[in-house]
Automatic annotation (TrEMBL):
It is found in: Nucleus. Mg(2+) 2 binds at residues 105, 107, 159. Keywords: ATP-binding, Magnesium, Manganese, Metal-binding, mRNA processing, Nucleotide-binding, Nucleus, RNA-binding, Transferase. Polymerase that creates the 3'-poly(A) tail of mRNA's. This is Poly(A) polymerase. Its EC number is 2.7.7.19. It comes from the Eukaryota. It comes from Gymnopilus dilepis. Binds 2 magnesium ions. Also active with manganese. InterPro entries: NT_sf (IPR043519), NuclTrfase_I-like_C (IPR011068), PolA_pol_cen_dom (IPR007012), PolA_pol_NTPase (IPR048840), PolA_pol_RNA-bd_dom (IPR007010), PolyA_polymerase (IPR014492).
Amino acid sequence: MASENLNGPSYLGVTPPISTNESSTREKEVTVTLMEELRRQKTFESEDEAKTREIVLGRVAALVKKFVKKVSLQRGLSESAATAAGGKIFTFGSYRLGVHGPGSDIDTLCVVPKHVSREDFFDVFEPMLKEMEGATEVSGVPEAYVPIIKAEINGIPLDLLMARLALSSIPDNLSLKDDNLLRNLDERCVRSLNGSRVIDEILRLVPNVEVFRDALRCIKLWAQRRAIYSNVNGFLGGVAWALLVARICQLYPNAVAGAIVSRFFIIMYQWSWPQPVLLKQIEEGPLPVRVWNPKLYPSDRAHRMPIITPAYPAMCSTHNVTASTQMIITDEFKRGAEIVDRVIIGTAEWSELFAKHDFFHRYRYYLQIIASTGNPDLQIKWAGTVESRLRQLVMKLEYVDSLVLAHPFIKGFDQVSYCLSEEEVRAVAQGEISDVIASRKKEDIEGKEGAGPVYSTTFYIGLAIEPKPAGSVGPRKLDISYPTTEFTKMVKMWEKFDESTMGIVVRHIKNTALPDNVFDPGERPAKTVQKRVKGSKSNNTSPDLPNKRQRSSQSDLPLKAAENGTVPPSSTLTPVAESLPSKDIRSPQLPTGENAALAMGTVSAQ
């Protein structure tokens, strides 16, 4: 929203820009090399794929009109009225932002008139989609938080949502900007509409859309490579990253993409959380719905890194951030600022910014959370349920004495194991997959009694443990039994949980016991040599390591899981010195230079 300054021109955002100057020659040069690197990293789709997307969207748009007409006729409307009822699609997400890459899906909203129901979307539109030429893998998920149909058409994946407006027809020139369109809609329709409305507002609130897109493409790739791109696991999702980049664009309206990326890291590293990031002042609207307001709602006050959506009703896009994930994100902002500073002075390349994360090299101990079933469709739902609760485990672990942080990895690792006996099934469910089981194929178990596949998804949490106090003697134990037991109880409370078909196991493992599937080919360090993480003490020379006899008898304790996915009543770790984020990450010394206070401004939630 443009704010008006009586003595000067308008500006975008809640504060005036920090600088309206054009970028320097050097910043323009590094922008050219940045775009070259992004192309090398294959973040852009081909012209052929772009054309295919446009053709597919055109066909889906036509199908939505056909769907609305079909339902309208079933409701008794005349031929002319049924044709006039319309129907329209809107894209959102990375495609609408213009930062999608090869193979990424298109988030698509199907807007229909009031006489078309959500049941019609799944009972009528889904079968029509399945019959469309080139359509594969069409599957509806009506019970999802935001009901969705997933499809692939001519190789292009789509996520289709539906919103039913309180209108008798949907004209081709319909805009979703009017807040009054949200009147008399159910919550699912409001949520479905909000994705598209937020993206449209972001694009309206940035001074230069092309610069914004180029800078966001860079930040998105960086966040993915550094394993901090995941809303569900307590980091930031696509909308939140877009909002942060958009705010920096508002503060430097005439800067090129390379300069925006540089300022992004400097300002975000300095940001005084929980000061919210806003693209415009929060507004009230026509609905009796909750708008983000930390003065009114204690749960809003608890948000650690509030990044607020600009479309009504304003919401926090980062409510999942925990103390641990905030510390990790801040550490990455610092690393990014240092690298980009060196890029600008010519002593580093952009490729260094996009170096792969070191999650599976960083810690000595990890928690393994293994969700398993014997059915592929059930596994998707069960693993998704477990993943959606991982943040609660992280928050419980943060209260454990001596644990500095609990670092969740952003995705699970799926595996299908073909087992010949109940004993093998139990072993796989507990994460013990032998080379024999791992190499077995489907045909090896066909027709054998008691044999069958086990579908497992394994999630990881890295445990950073405080160094022992100076002068202390002997190994120190870390009890994580309470958070792990409470977590398993919580996931079993899922209404569809079935003890006989679903397994859940939580156990700790040492870094040397990590399975091969978490590493890229050739990435795994040799078993006898611990890979040294830059800036950390080698595990082989740490003063906190017990002697060899102690290591073998005490620090290598497996957390064995009982049958049916239960967790034993106690689990202990012998902690050692970890590669921790440096102390200044938790209370950073602000770099001199940019006026971060001006960037934050004084904002209020009415």
